[in-house]
Amino acid sequence: MSGHSSPTVNRRGFLAAGAAGAAVLGFGAPLRAAQPLKVGLLLPLSGGLAREGQSCKRGAEVTPGLLADMGMPVQLMIADTETNIDTARTRAEKLIADGAQVLIGAFDSAHTLAVAQVCEQRGVPLVVNIAAAPNITEQGFKTLFRNFPTAPKLVTEGLALMKDVFKVTGTTPTKAVFLHNNDTFGTAMAGAVNKLFPTLDMPFPLVETISYDGNARDLAVEVGKAKATGADLVLLVPHGDDCIRAIREMVKQRFEPKAVVSPGSPGMYETQFYKTLGKYSDYCMTNLPWINPKSAMSQALLKAFSKSHPDALFEMNIGFTFEAILIAADAAKRAGSNDPKAILAALPTTNIAEHVMIGGPIAFDAKGQNTNTRSATIQNFGGKPLVVLPSDVAEAKPVFPAPGWQQRG
Amino acid sequence: MSRQAILLCLLLAAFALAPLAAGPYLLSVLVVVMYFAYVGQAWNIMMGFAGQLSLGHTLYVGLGAYTAGALFVHLGVPAALGLFAAVAAAVLVGGAVGALGFRFGVKGVYFALLTIAFAEFTRILFEHIPGLGGPGGLFLPVGDRTGIDLIHLRGHPLMFYYLILAMTVGIFLLCRKLVRSRLGYTWLAVREDQEAAAALGINVFRAKLYAVMLSAGLTALGGVFFAFYYNNLFPNQAFGMNRSIEIILAPIVGGLGTLFGPILGALILTPLGEGITMATEALGFKAAGIKQLCYGLSLLAIVKFLPDGVWPWIRTRLGLEPEEDGEGDR
């Protein structure tokens, strides 16, 4: 989304939006001390999840400036979990020892749960920016609040949105084939898809599920099998560069489904995907939570982000990380205090109508889960992901069926 | 009392009294230190004492963790009972791996590859067992974090601290006893020259199998601690190859085949990582991965200048005789 047209809202506009939101939400609570809120941010900045962690970090870096304009000064203390559960736990302890009043993180579900136990023990709130394991909010933590959908919700909405695409475009595929990476993430997603698919009354049958090794140098056999099924829709759950190999192989084998759709996985909206595949990256669809292009706040975030990271993709990780910090700052502001106990008391009554991700107001249920998140369909056009559904926030109309590989400019 | 015994007592006293002075952060670091000292010591039995290289030792951590964790989650079996099943499972699997490898004469790096293969196979297997959470993870109810319940292993972090301290002391004493036993000398003979040991009438197959099974069972105990300390298990975390590497680093750096080596190695490596992080932060280096770079260079330096490990070097410097702790020439 970097470089989208009409980023018309500047920081002043953002401030106005924030002020309006504040008025709506009753930000008239006593002003807290001028001291910035110390936010400890735990991210996998190195190790296996470094790419995602770095993306979150880029979003976090532009956040304090925007929140300061809204009268919510924050001081970020960023720590690297190194994609390691031991480090995640000790870093959480270190951040609290260094004075962090709220913790945010930690991207990976296992790390998040390790951090959550520290926070619970120390009475420090934890706002989960990204982590999808449903059990995180089933452990009975009093200090944990999650602004990210659970994995089953991701898949359910990811599949349901496909029906909307077919409805809007007036074309329905006759049968689909499911290709997925056999790593932990891909297998978990496959389990959820296979479980939920029959319950969602999908307008096409899933004729075959094919798993592949994400580290395989080519996917000729798997794509060949998929082509042989005669499916005209490919559901793809990649997790890294394997999506590039899968599309390349489809082009090579002249396998031209009506669309390649991912029900909620990374890969097809990443910079490397666009750079490597060029025109072949276009028209691929991913259904997942996304930044609301129509929100004044997200436009301001985009502007600030594009200025500091002109070459980086403006995507989901950035939005959720921004929102997690926003939630913490909002709670501190309403509490009129940076004291962790006061913030904890304020977090359950969070109700942020104006925010950056698509979905309803940010609010938490009794378990600390925001149930108002909503997935969107993003489709690649000209090397950029654009929101095509839901219609109320769409930037473009969905294109389905996609033009053949050789019919693209 | 020998100088080594005095050293050990001082170390033990320092760890026992650490909670009086250390905050939660330092305690969490010390838990990690002792955890790696413990599992390092367990691995040391197999590699350091018996000379059998295992690069898939996380298999036993994972088996122990999942067995005790699943029994607790699904049947409410307390950890104090679940650990017996965990150890039994690991001993059985360890025995199977060992028997398979040794019966067919798989040695050296090929045996190491076999251990990796089993760990990877088990990881994939566990990803496909829905009752254990599959790739979505198995979550233990966190429960009370203030009390002390050693039966169910639920409670305050300080309880876990003293538990892992007790486990580390326990495995140290056990290994000390073992290396001075007939079995220990048998392992030494097998490690130094398998053919010569066989010629002397030693049952090499049985000696190696005992080492694998004992090492696996003790490692599984570490897995039980891991499961109940972190309260969540994912196959890629519990059986991941990187965890295997983490397990073997402490004994290699500290001194392979020595009793103090795994402890010293863990005492060096974990604080080294934390120290590098703090130093780089204090110096304003914000590039991710700088810690790993410095850590790797430090490891290189240790391996280059102290190829036998840090403990043998210190032992020589302090004028301590290897025989004093029953380590023979290890």
TrEMBL record, chain B:
<keyword id="KW-0472">Membrane</keyword>
<keyword id="KW-1003">Cell membrane</keyword>
<dbReference type="GO" id="GO:0005886">
    <property type="term" value="C:plasma membrane"/>
</dbReference>
<feature type="transmembrane region" description="Helical">
    <location>
        <begin position="109"/>
        <end position="126"/>
    </location>
</feature>
<keyword id="KW-1133">Transmembrane helix</keyword>
<protein>
    <submittedName>
        <fullName>ABC-type branched-chain amino acid transport system, permease component</fullName>
    </submittedName>
</protein>
<dbReference type="InterPro" id="IPR001851">
    <property type="entry name" value="ABC_transp_permease"/>
</dbReference>
<dbReference type="GO" id="GO:0015658">
    <property type="term" value="F:branched-chain amino acid transmembrane transporter activity"/>
</dbReference>
<dbReference type="InterPro" id="IPR043428">
    <property type="entry name" value="LivM-like"/>
</dbReference>
<feature type="transmembrane region" description="Helical">
    <location>
        <begin position="83"/>
        <end position="102"/>
    </location>
</feature>
<keyword id="KW-0812">Transmembrane</keyword>
<feature type="transmembrane region" description="Helical">
    <location>
        <begin position="209"/>
        <end position="228"/>
    </location>
</feature>
<feature type="transmembrane region" description="Helical">
    <location>
        <begin position="58"/>
        <end position="77"/>
    </location>
</feature>
<feature type="transmembrane region" description="Helical">
    <location>
        <begin position="248"/>
        <end position="272"/>
    </location>
</feature>
<feature type="transmembrane region" description="Helical">
    <location>
        <begin position="158"/>
        <end position="175"/>
    </location>
</feature>
<dbReference type="Pfam" id="PF02653">
    <property type="entry name" value="BPD_transp_2"/>
</dbReference>
